[in-house]
Amino acid sequence: MRIKKTLLTILFCPVLIQAQISSKVIKQFPAHIIYKIDEVVSKVNVAEDKQIKIGQKLITADSLATMALANGESVEKLKLYYTINIPFLKSILSEKELDHYGYELNKDNRFLTALKFATELKLTSTQVSQIREQNDSLVSVPTVPSKGTIQAYNIKLSKILAKEQYISLLNIIYKDQSIEEAKKEMVKILRLKILSEKDYKTEFLKILNYYLAKNSLLDKKADKYDKKKGDFLAKKIALGEPPLLVRANILSNGSYKNNRYASVIKYEKELELTKNQIDSLLSQYRQHEKIKLENSEKESNLSPSKIVPSEHEVIGRILNPEQINKWLVSKNKEDARKEALRNWLQLEAEGLTKDLDKNKTLTEFANYQLKYLVIKEKAYVYHTPENVFMRGDVERKKPELLKQLDVITRTKAKNTTVKNALTW
User: Fold this and answer.
1) According to the UniProt entry, where is the signal peptide (predicted)?
2) Single pTM value for the model
């Protein structure tokens, strides 16, 4: 996923240091006025002469508040005299400064976000005027807007901004969230020790760009899509996950598609996979999931589906025979243990466990089941007569107790069939 120059500019543009209250202003006004001036200066750069004007206006308001109190005004109403808002500042600050101040008060207002980052978005003077007009037309601006309000922002802005500008605006809106998500992923990746220091910045940018694309497209703050559409888009976007992130998710039991390519990567250390093998597996992982997603979409359109390449055959071309054997043993070990335990419970149910050593019997069952599962799956990797023979050889060496269970199971099934036939 290529990172565009404009996007990098937005992400890594220098943070402006907010102006401080000038020493002249501090000397000129009392502490409670300085405190109120700082409310503005901490949000937007304000020149010294404008700081003085704000102070003077507050002094006037202070006098009016004192007079009101003397005339019996309630204490609760006095705060109105000291409230600094857009109308209060309108005669002092420029339109651009008012835009920036308003944005700091309500960062969910997307009109003000666009105006705040007008330079980065390369807005024309006409676009600035149009957006400012839309913002001024708002009757009230909730500090925590509803999803309906955000959708209204989107509709208006999509008509004013060019497509590239609109996408960049969404990137700005989701920048902080995406950076935090990318940082968490990098912590996970560094713990796994699967990234060299020299590649850190490059890979971080790939992951950051992925989350920016994902968050901007889904735009969950606006609740753009119903659940079905949102889930489908999320799956589609996931196909663009950087390979390193997919690998990290597999190795850390994170969120990933549980296909056979993932099951190989899961044991990359045990198999001593090379970088080229890992890259090939990750590429096949993505391709496999892409075809599956495309086919699910085609099913709803009644279009012919693509053939999904055999995972076993592809893996057989990537790994050597020794690695194939290690992989199949590793991936089937737990299933073999579970099957052995199920077999033991069957024996118990039939009253056949008397005088048996449970641990020894479970080990014997698990060893057999593992050999069977490995040779059975190896036949899907290598289509050779040798594997067919080996599978038969393993079955012939099946433990006698398991053969007894097979006879019991077949007899019960036969009796059930006869009984059903007689009932009919």
Assistant:
1) 1-19
2) 0.82
- Evaluate whether 194 touches 251 at the Cβ level (below 8 Å): yes
Q: What does the pLDDT read at residue 148?
A: 84
**What is the SS3 assignment for 142?**
coil
pLDDT at 14: 47
Q: Are 113 and 103 in contact (CB under 8 A)?
A: yes
> Residue for token digits 């020299």?
198
Give the tens place of pLDDT for each residue, 130-147: 999 999 888 665 556 678
Residue 177 sits at φ, ψ, to 5 deg, of -60, -45
Taking only the tens place, the pLDDT of each residue in 387-421 is: 778 888 898 999 999 999 999 989 988 877 666 66
What's the chain's Rg over C-alpha atoms? 34
Q: Is 400 helix (H, G, I), strand (E, B) or coil?
A: helix
Dig out the tokens for 29 from the structure. 């006004």
Give the Cα separation of 75 and 360 in Å (integer). 85
Lookup: tokens for 172:
């700005």
pLDDT value at residue 419: 67
Nearest 5°: the CA angle 395, 400, 405 is 90
Residues whose CB is less than 8 angstroms from the CB of residue 120 and which lie 6 or more positions away in sequence, other chains included: 6, 9, 10, 13, 168, 172
Average pLDDT taken over every residue of the chain: 90
CA angle in degrees (0–180, nearest 5) for 205-206-209: 80
Q: Looking up tokens 């700081």, which residue turns up? A: 51
